């Protein structure tokens, strides 16, 4: 936004806790209830690109005061979707700077009398200003995170209301993630080029759903849930915040916890402090996929706001998984049992829609994750949609939840504030999800300098201060003995491309290198270690024997070398997980190292398996069978896995 020179974002619904970091309030996932309505504004909007050398023109000329079509020729643009791949024009794909969206909507009369009306965006990348009927209602910076505004006083009955959104994709040295913009001569004059070091396409636009929703005038603004387990008993500690005029009445909440079947298993009536604990006998804990026959068990927490005069002033429901997390120098435990994480780094990415929310894609991806026997993934390199977090809860998939900091460098106060803000917003959004088992505060930050040392100390401590119930990690890639951030983390994650960027073609150097590096990280920090990225670009259908880089054979062999290293490391105790890079092929900026994008997926971009996917499936179900007594393996894998088991127990060399 430096081009546009917008002021620091302090969105509606955000107050300052100290001079730097805004504290998010509200933003509960919009759910219908007896007291709330949700209306989607998804669909086709009108869209205009600004002139890259005149990005403030629309603001100066107040394009938000009336339909965009009155000032410019608009094109239809789907919401949610990235705008980049919708057209046939490289100018749209590579646009740098601002774009405008608008559409109109009606509201029913009773909304104005009885309700508060809200507008909520699941995410707009990278930052946004929103006007309703020509009045600015919210500004928000940092993609992949939701924001909202109350618009009760901005909407009208008896007229089609206008909503206008300005979105800017410009990344600078003080944005999260960072980028830079430079001017380059072209055949026709000059142009602005956006550069960034991270390895995924800087898709932009209204990426997730836009909804109007209503709450009562006095409403449940926020709910925080923490859970505990002791023997067969579970506890759910809840805390509710309300907003609005309480009058002279004493306000309290009635809370019911319902089983999956809908039966009330615990109830509580709070005092005026609106918090309390529900005790659940014979609890069904939330377990990761394949760790228990009934994995991903969720209760339904039903909160009803009442006062002495009126019941059910507002009702909000939230799914709750009861589980505990614990970690020490050598293990990571869930419900007291050691966990070995097996999964992926991923991207929100697909053909045409880019990073736009796509429920068909999310559903397919979770089906593939379960097909392959994974139990975890990292939301590399930014927060994923709220809908996918709900899927993870339901399916028992553990999430390492990453903020949008990638390749962080040039550390300064402005960057630190924004980095902290991205973590604050992420934790606010995701703290109630049982699937979230770790916070990742960065991917491949440049951590060799002293300034990185104090920067990451602050970021890690800030994260812990907001949520001490989950460990803090970061996907590191500096050499272990040069890195200055690892000591501030609870769990060490490291990315390394043995046999690819390092010693390409040398499949015979992988096992030793992976083991040596993991051991060094552990020796230096005495903390659990996991490998958060390894892999090889692979063109689906390219077969070369003996294995040669870019072929399916090479990816599969590189994986099996890593598996051997991981099996050796698992025996020493503190090695707690393996994550393939990447789940699926994805789009990047143009470069001669990328054939139509990054091809390290084990699935193609349209989610078809490469040979390595079948191998990984055997690996992940094999691990499951070895580590979890209740693991059910698919019948087509039975023979292979029983043989592997036999092999594992008879070969114990380190
Ligand atoms: C790692 C990055 C990841 C890249 C990957 C690669 O964390 O974002 O996509 O390398 O180059 O360094 O494939």
UniProtKB/TrEMBL annotation:
Q: What is its EC number?
A: 3.2.1.31
Gene Ontology CC terms, in alphabetical order: extracellular space; lysosome
Recount the known activity regulation. Answer: Inhibited by L-aspartic acid.
Annotated Glycoside hydrolase family 2 catalytic domain ranges read: 329-621
Q: Which reaction is this enzyme known to catalyze?
A: a beta-D-glucuronoside + H2O = D-glucuronate + an alcohol
Q: Does the keyword Secreted apply?
A: no
Residue ranges of the Glycosyl hydrolases family 2 sugar binding domain?
Answer: 38-216
Q: What subcellular compartments does it reside in?
A: Lysosome
Which of UniProt's keywords are assigned here?
Glycoprotein, Glycosidase, Hydrolase, Lysosome, Signal
Principal EC category? hydrolase
For the Glycoside hydrolase family 2 immunoglobulin-like beta-sandwich domain, which residue ranges apply?
A: 219-323
Entry annotated with the keyword Cytoplasm: no
Lineage top rank: taxon: Eukaryota
Q: Which GO terms describe its biological process?
A: carbohydrate metabolic process; glucuronoside catabolic process
The record, for Pfam families, names:
Glyco_hydro_2, Glyco_hydro_2_C, Glyco_hydro_2_N
Q: What does this protein do?
A: Plays an important role in the degradation of dermatan and keratan sulfates.
Tell me its family. Belongs to the glycosyl hydrolase 2 family.
- Record text on subunit structure and interactions: Homotetramer.
Protein name in UniProt? Beta-glucuronidase
